[in-house]
């Protein structure tokens, strides 16, 4: 596996030898001092260029970065419609284990780009045209304090979608139920993130997809969160649903108390409804 220094030398060497590349920036975990370094970290690189089509018209120019085992170019995919305007991205996984996510940005957008991400750092500026940036920080990724409306919407979404899970489990539609488990757990992770936010004065991130919650929650709460991931048997799924409800209910109470919000009043009624569905016989013709 090429070392990080070898990769950086390559990335900057390619840019330095190509007049079309006017600047190089980096963001992501490698610029975040709060992220533990490991060999799986991507190199999130931006080349600011004079002519994007000059690159995209030659699909083999990226071969210089090394042998790839797989690549995505999202702007060319119909599965994920382009969202970056005139930008273009190469997501490259190399056979030696390194990965580069390389975005091409036209020079006309360079100032706007530099304001987008607090983790951005400038590696090369041939024309001395980029704005001076402060040291990279993950402040843009810190948990944000919710409004009371946002809090209530999160509660409503959790309890509303939980009824879909119960319906799917009663009907023996496991894939349907599992899809909605994912939605409700997203709300649970959001609520747990707000709780961490209050406890840390909204001064830190919980990581992508809440990955750092393991180190920010108590052991008891973390184990309850893990227990919401069922083994796809119906008994396990019902248990996971009620564990999720219990954890969400206690977390919403905590968050409401800490932020002086009014608690969500529908949870008890929905929980009773879920328990009722669980007990219904499989041939039930009437719900109540």
TrEMBL record:
One of its GO terms (molecular function) is nucleotidyltransferase activity. This is Aminoglycoside adenylyltransferase. Signal peptide: none annotated. Gene3D superfamilies: Beta Polymerase, domain 2, Nucleotidyltransferases domain 2. Keywords: Nucleotidyltransferase, Transferase. InterPro entries: Aminoglycoside_adenylylTfrase (IPR007530), NT_sf (IPR043519). It comes from Viridibacillus arvi.
């Amino acid at each position: 596996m090429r070392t990080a220094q070898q990769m950086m030398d390559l990335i900057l060497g390619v840019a330095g030898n190509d007049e079309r590349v006017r600047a190089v920036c980096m963001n992501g975990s490698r610029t975040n001092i709060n992220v533990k370094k490991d060999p799986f970290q991507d190199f999130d690189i931006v080349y600011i260029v004079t002519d994007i089509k000059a690159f995209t018209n030659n699909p083999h120019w990226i071969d210089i970065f090394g042998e790839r085992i797989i690549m995505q170019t999202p702007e060319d995919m119909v599965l994920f419609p382009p969202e970056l305007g005139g930008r273009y991205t190469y997501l490259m996984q190399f056979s030696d284990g390194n990965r580069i996510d390389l975005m091409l940005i036209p020079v006309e957008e360079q100032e706007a780009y530099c304001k987008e991400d607090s983790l951005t750092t400038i590696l090369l500026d041939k024309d001395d045209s980029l704005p001076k940036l402060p040291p990279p920080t993950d402040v843009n990724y810190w948990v944000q304090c919710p409004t009371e409306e946002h809090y209530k919407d999160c509660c409503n979404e959790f309890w509303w979608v939980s009824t879909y899970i119960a319906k799917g489990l009663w009907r023996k539609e496991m894939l349907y139920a599992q899809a909605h488990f994912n939605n409700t757990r997203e709300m649970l992770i959001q609520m747990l993130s707000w709780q961490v936010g209050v406890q840390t004065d909204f001064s830190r991130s919980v990581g992508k997809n809440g990955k750092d919650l393991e180190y920010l929650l108590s052991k008891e709460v973390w184990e309850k969160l893990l227990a919401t991931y069922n083994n796809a048997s119906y008994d396990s799924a019902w248990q996971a649903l009620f564990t999720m409800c219990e954890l969400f209910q206690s977390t919403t109470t905590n968050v409401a108390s800490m932020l002086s919000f009014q608690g969500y009043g529908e949870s008890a009624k929905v929980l009773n409804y879920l328990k009722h569905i669980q007990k219904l016989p499989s041939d039930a013709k009437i719900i109540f």
